[in-house]
Amino acid sequence: MGKQQSDNLSREDFQREQAAPRRHGGVRRAAKLLAVLILVFAVVLVAAYQDLSSFDSVRRLFSYNKVTQDEQGKAELYSFDNDRTNVYAMLGERLIVASTTNVAVLANDGTRVYSESVRMTHPAVAVGGQTVLVYDIGGQTALLLGEKGLLRDCGKLCDAGILSASLNSSDYLTLTTEKSGYQSVVSVYDPTGNALFTFNSSDRYVMDACVLRDCKHLAVVTLGEADGAFASTLKLYALLSETPESVNVLNGSLVLSLGNLGGRLVTIADDRLTVFGADGSLSGSYRYDYPYLRAQSTGGTDYTALLLSRYRSGSTLKLVTVSADGEKIGEADIGKEVLCISAAGKYLAALYSDSLTIYTSDLSEYATLSNTEYAKSVIMREDGTALLLGTSSAWLFIP
User: What is the pLDDT of residues 282-315, one digit of tens each?
Assistant: First the structure.
């Protein structure tokens, strides 16, 4: 055999030796991919077997597979001080607890990420996209919190008592406060804390105000009179102009709150829900079937939940969901006491004195929990889980 042939054989042997591991590596990668696909398929089959009707059920199987649950799907996550003045908000996986004496941010492993002693008379919370404002109604305490704790002390922005506050999904802050010489003043701040707009109301009380989802307009509702009867007036401002772009008078209605719903502005009054477009035009309205509004939640993706009562007291109740067009989506007659309702995403939680029911937006039952362990309120979450809040602890219900 010649030297050239010998060299060619050596190169061929070398190439075969180098190629063999690559072939084996490719087989191993293919086997791993196949195993992952089989696992995903098995999870989907389990979800179907358990009659979990959406992708959220599959996501929960992965997200909470390490959480210790009891046989009903409950997992205790948070502990806090027992205080009857406690108010709560969820920010991602963090629970914010505020009382007249303390503000705390709790991680889901039970640790306190942040804690601050305060003096408040009427604590309240406003929830944005990445932040939560804890404030004192009638006082001057206002703390803007993130998942790691305090971001800004907004009480320094208030010369007098705070009447209301709101955060939109982009964390634009609206503060309505008292001011000497005026009935009230509305101030708007961007997410970095820069002042964008100030509106002084000299003749009417401002009931509520919020920045719309487009972050370009401010909605302000005032209470006064029209044609000899009380009326709420809704004004829409561009953030760079003190002249309103639109004015809507709601005769005989007392607007209780404003909110953003499906990119539109929704007003919740004592007798009706009204939806307006970004230009202030009327988009829809729903007059209540029962005359008394007990509770409401605008946390749904494209609907609002209302709890209505036939009488001033008693348990003859109706639970209603209303779309961003002002049309009724679903309704359910309720014959027992309702402690709290909370909407998030496409789910609605109703906490009763002895149980919890999670509904979809059309009020079809999605999941139930029979033992709520003396829970006082509930916070629905977009993934279909619900946080139940007791006097000194909170636990997660994972359907």
Answer: 999 999 999 999 999 988 778 999 999 999 888 8
Pair 91, 104: CB distance under 8 Å? no
Q: Which stretches in the chain have pLDDT values below 70?
A: 1-55, 57-74, 76
Cβ–Cβ < 8 Å for 77, 88: no
Please report, to the nearest 10 degrees, the dihedral formed by the alpha carbons of residues 252, 258, 264, 269 taken in order.
Answer: -30
How many degrees, rounded to 5, is the angle at CA 298 between CA 177 and CA 218? Answer: 40
Give yes or no for a contact between 347 and 20, defined as CB atoms under 8 angstroms apart.
no
Among 301, 340, 345, CA closest to 317? 340
Residues 390, 99 contacting (CB under 8 angstroms): no
DSSP class of residue 122 equals S
**317: its two tokens:** 């109740």
To 10 degrees, what angle do helices 55-63 and 3-49 make? 110
Letter for the amino acid at 317?
Answer: L
Residue 160 half-sphere exposure, CB side, CA atoms within 13 Å? 12
Enter the tokens of residue 171: 């964390």
pTM score, whole prediction:
0.82
153, two tokens = 């002390």
What's the DSSP call for residue 390?
-
- In the chain, the largest separation of any two C-alpha atoms, in whole Å, equals 116
Residue type, 334: I
Task: Give 75's contacts (C-beta < 8 A, 6+ positions apart).
Answer: 64, 67, 68, 69, 395, 396, 398
Q: Which of 186, 227, 228 is nearest to 206 (CA)?
A: 186
- Phi (first) and psi of residue 241, to 5 degrees: -135, 140
- Give the integer Cα–Cα distance in Å for 265 and 166: 13
Angle at 186 between CA 183 and CA 191, to 5 degrees: 165
Query: Which 3 state secondary structure label does DSSP give 324?
Result: coil
Average of per-residue pLDDT values in the chain: 85
Is-contact 273 262, C-beta < 8 A? Answer: no
Question: In the beta sheet, which residues pair with residue 314?
Answer: none
Selection from 79, 77, 97, 80 nearest residue 88 by Cα: 97
Return the structure tokens found at 66.
């390490």
Q: Are 385 and 397 in contact (CB under 8 A)?
A: yes
Task: Give the C-alpha separation, 218 to 232, whole Å.
Answer: 16
pLDDT in tens, 125-170: 999 999 999 999 999 999 999 999 999 999 988 888 999 999 999 9
